[in-house]
Predict the 3D structure of the following.
Amino acid sequence: MKRKIFARRNAKILGLIAFIATGGGLIASTAINEDNFYKTEILIILGCFFVISLVDHYRKLKESDDKKILTKRSLYILACSFIGVTSTWFINHKMGYGAVIANGLVGVMAATFLPNDLAGITYTSSFVGMSSLKVIPSMQAAILSSVIVGFVFLTTAEIYAGIGGKGGTTAALSTIITRAITRILG
């Protein structure tokens, strides 16, 4: 039992590290490429709040005691991630409606038929399906990215819960990981 708790906690710490890398990388690259000194100062201040909140989350994560690794809810999250990414990718690229219409359609359908939390997961996953063919070139890559975004959701569930920006960071992180894997395999 202790081994399962340790594995679950390590997966969450890995998710936290991935969020740190994604958010920190976006803040740092924006600050480096910004010519306006005042905007750079603001980004540095926001970066400090980012670091403080992640340190606080890490402290809480170390104290948590997770007992179950795979639950019914985990399967729902993986299913919603799959539906969000693949249906948006299909509507976008195979049906030719474009990324915004595909994302909007999936979002409205999710909000209509799913509970709020699962609708949010489906909608966020659909951001990944909006990627161009250069990033996610096939349905197989879309399926891979749906699995990745599902695992990102499972390992980062408590990070920034209820605070704006998590959906975009989750989609960005999942897309970066998918792109790296498809480059390695392709």
